[in-house]
Amino acid sequence: MAKRVAVIGGGTSGLACIKCCLDESLDPVCFETSDDIGGLWRFKVRHVYPDRASIYHSLIINTSKEMMCFSDFPIPAHFPNYMHNSLIMDYFRMYADHFQLKRHIRFQVRTEADTLKL
């Protein structure tokens, strides 16, 4: 039986952690407070969680797509070099779908260090 690993958050780093765990034959369980992946890159018209930051609607990344992509999943060639946040979310969804990461995520779960149940 594979060792279980807790991953906190389904944003950029959380998705990469899930994928790395799977590559190492570990059993990741990701806890995400919201109902979707993306973390800070997911724009919200209103803040569902008052203690959680959000990007602004017109945000465009200031890093080229070649520098910000996951090393094992290039950003599609037809995406612009400096992407709008909605395209970044599209890319994260493609990555999660390609590697079937969402099945390892428990959505709408708030965590505290002493209450994690794997």
UniProtKB/TrEMBL annotation:
<dbReference type="InterPro" id="IPR050346">
    <property type="entry name" value="FMO-like"/>
</dbReference>
<comment type="similarity">
    <text>Belongs to the FMO family.</text>
</comment>
<dbReference type="InterPro" id="IPR036188">
    <property type="entry name" value="FAD/NAD-bd_sf"/>
</dbReference>
<keyword id="KW-0560">Oxidoreductase</keyword>
<keyword id="KW-0274">FAD</keyword>
<dbReference type="InterPro" id="IPR020946">
    <property type="entry name" value="Flavin_mOase-like"/>
</dbReference>
<keyword id="KW-0503">Monooxygenase</keyword>
<dbReference type="GO" id="GO:0004499">
    <property type="term" value="F:N,N-dimethylaniline monooxygenase activity"/>
</dbReference>
<dbReference type="Pfam" id="PF00743">
    <property type="entry name" value="FMO-like"/>
</dbReference>
<keyword id="KW-0285">Flavoprotein</keyword>
<dbReference type="GO" id="GO:0050661">
    <property type="term" value="F:NADP binding"/>
</dbReference>
<protein>
    <recommendedName>
        <fullName>Flavin-containing monooxygenase</fullName>
        <ecNumber>1.-.-.-</ecNumber>
    </recommendedName>
</protein>
<dbReference type="GO" id="GO:0050660">
    <property type="term" value="F:flavin adenine dinucleotide binding"/>
</dbReference>
